[in-house]
Amino acid sequence: MYATLILVQTLNGLQLGIILFLIAAGLTLVFGVMDFINLAHGVQYMLGAYFAYEFTTLTGSFTLGLLMALPAALLAGLVLEAFIFRHLYDRDHLEQVLATFGVILFLNQGVKVVWGASPLFVPVPDWLQGSIEILPGFFYPIYRLAIIAAGLGVAALLYFLVNHTRAGMLVRAGASNATMVAALGVDIRFLFMIVFGFGAMLAGFAGAMVAPILSVEPGMGDNLLILAFVVIVIGGIGSIRGAFIAALLIGLVDTLGRGFSTDLLRLVMDPSAASQTGRAIAPMLTYILMALVLVFRPSGLFPVKK
Q1: Where would I find the H helices in 60-165?
Q2: pTM for the complete prediction?
Q3: Which of 45, 68, 228, 304 lies 20 to 30 A from 200 at CA?
Q4: Distances from the Cα of 228 to the Cαs of 27, 142, 233, 234, 235, in angstroms?
């Protein structure tokens, strides 16, 4: 029974890690290539969830809603880039933080005006409902497995695009030395726009995928944004491989830590003290891990060479 619980929590950790990767992948590219701190990246995850809800309601099909939410998330990212973020690239990081925080406040209030403040729910598609028997007597929801599979597929596609295409070569070059890329005749502003829009679409895809299992509500991306920043710090700014490995690591550490830290502490402490200490330590584990990585690998596990 305990082994089954560990397996459930491990799968939940992988699912969280996949969602974090979809958010952090765009964030690390934007930060690595453009040296731009975008605190509003989490609201693009939120917009993806709202777009999935809206289009699913209009079409009656989650599949169609998801397919329509992706270009909508891309368009939203491009609009924000053109009208707001483009004017912040040459500013210092403090101004970027303040401006993008303002965007968070504006969009959180904006979705309340359009969709209301109450949580909204998206039904799980019929063909992904139910559970599948992974081990004898152990069932796991099909849709959660679909999230893991979709995230792994996106990770493989992203790896191919970044490492085996000309556009990916330019992105990697921009992450290493944006000034030199611009000097060689590449339209660096257009490259920035493409990277930003693609990152927004990835975050929107993550929001659309979790809409059937979480409530869609204002501010839903704020907490995940913090974890996404932890991911890119651990993985290395600008590194897709680092973001993927760090996201899975953070997902497992956070989920398993919350599930089993109290049980482990009971081996060396009395139950009451173990319960209190476990509840206090569990939310800190990801940040403890980040601190350890920064001590021994200040540039992250897989830093981009400059």
Answers
A1: 62-83, 93-115, 142-164
A2: 0.90
A3: 304
A4: 8, 26, 9, 10, 10
For the chain, domain boundaries: 2-296
What is residue 221's three-state secondary structure?
A: coil
pLDDT one-digit tens code per residue, 221-235: 888 888 888 999 998
**In degrees rounded to 5, what are phi and psi of residue 139?**
-115, 145
For residue range 46-65, list pLDDT tens digits in order.
Answer: 999 999 999 999 998 999 99
How many CB atoms neighbour CB 245 within 10 A? 19
Listed in sequence order, the residues at least 6 apart from 141 whose beta carbon sits closer than 8 Å to its beta carbon are 130, 131
pLDDT score of 231: 92
* Cross-strand partners of 132: 140
The class (CATH top level) of 2-296 is: mainly alpha
Kindly provide the b/e burial profile for residues 8-31, where b requires at least 16 CB atoms within 10 angstroms of the residue's own CB. bbebbbbbbbbbbbbbbbbbbbbb
- CA dist 127 and 143 (Å) reads 9
**Distances in whole angstroms, Cα of residue 133 to Cα of each of 126, 130, 140:** 18, 10, 7
